[in-house]
Amino acid sequence: xxxxxxxxxxxxxxxxxxxxxxxxxxxxxxxxxxxxxxxxxxxxxxxxxxxxxxxxxxxxxxxxxxxxxxxxxxxxxxxxxxxxxxxxxxxxxxxxxxxxxxxxxxxxxxxxxxxxxxxxxxxxxxxxxxxxxxxxxxxxxxxxxxxxxxxxxxxxxxxxxxxxxxxxxxxxxxxxxxxxxxxxxxxxxxxxxxxxxxxxxxxxxxxxxxxxxxxxxxxxxxxxxxxxxxxxxxxxxxxxxxxxxxxxxxxxxxxxxxxxxxxxxxxxxxxxxxxxxxxxxxxxxxxxxxxxxxxxxxxxxxxxxxxxxxxxxxxxxxxxxxxxxxxxxxxxxxxxxxxxxxxxxxxxxxxxxxxxxxxxxxxxxxxxxxxxxxxxxxxxxxxxxxxxxxxxxxxxxxxxxxxxxxxxxxxxxxxxxxxxxxxxxxxxxxxxxxxxxxxxxxxxxxxxx
Length: 449
Hints:
mainly alpha; Butyryl-CoA Dehydrogenase, subunit A, domain 3; MetI-like fold; 2 domains; 3-stranded antiparallel sheet; two-stranded antiparallel ribbon; 21 helices; 5% strand
């Protein structure tokens, strides 16, 4: 118990020392020397070399270790403390190697130009020497001590069995945790940081505080203000149109396949097959089918309507989305239906309950948690709508079907207004979090005990 608390305190000490640690880079080009200093947190936001990805792995692992120690999970705390120690040590080793510390080049380039070097190319900087601050090594020692003090008890069979039981679940999820920490957390943190900057994707971001959010939320005459309102409105509209059908249609298919009709496995595979296709394949196929001149749907209905313009455009987008997404939810519902005891239905039949009564009082309560999961996941997925309206309608028809992610991509990639796009993305993320939180609260309050 005492050792776990000390390990947690050492983990906190590691995080504090990490924040105050830094590196000094020195280079010499044509007898002109220059040096620069960067703290590890600022180095993280450069994301210009692979070794820097070890920083979030070390920090997140240590945070997990601290939580584990506070929850009296000594073996788990040891695991994450060890991962943090090894990750931070590897970062210190690799970042000191030549060609692995290019994150220091922009600052060194500015220093060399200030020292009188007019024409500087990146290949001129052949070697960057790095020197870490003493607090960096103290942070490494703190991480090592945190792992050492929480070392598991291996002298007894009970201790070894406890170690296997505690760490085996993490062995299964280790690949997911690894890639999540390396390739999700850094972009997410950097995206939030970029929302408070003026950035064109080429030069260094310039911190401007809440200016992007003031423009988006309060400057009514600004183009980005109009884009945010139109994009969010269309995104919410699509969610309201599509999510009910993303629940009802796969649930209906799962109930139909439960009857064990002849060929039900073939139909199950047929309904699930669209989920395996890419959004590009699905959207272009349906675009061909709704083509005004030679489309299958147009010829079958004998219609001359333009399906890619209001008021029909949202209908097409929703149809494509449901056809693409229904298979995944259908499989979840099939599993949930199979877990409901058959004797419940037999008892209800004896009491004179009809199919509708069975569905309301047995099927729905028995599927409440799968329904909650798919409902929340469907809402989150449809808030991230992008490919369908982009390839079906684009920005045509006075941007009638332009969703917020289309504006985010357009501004960031084509117009190089990455800071404003990041602010839009943060607002969209907050909307998704708020809606998901309200969903969970409402559905949990209505769930049976």
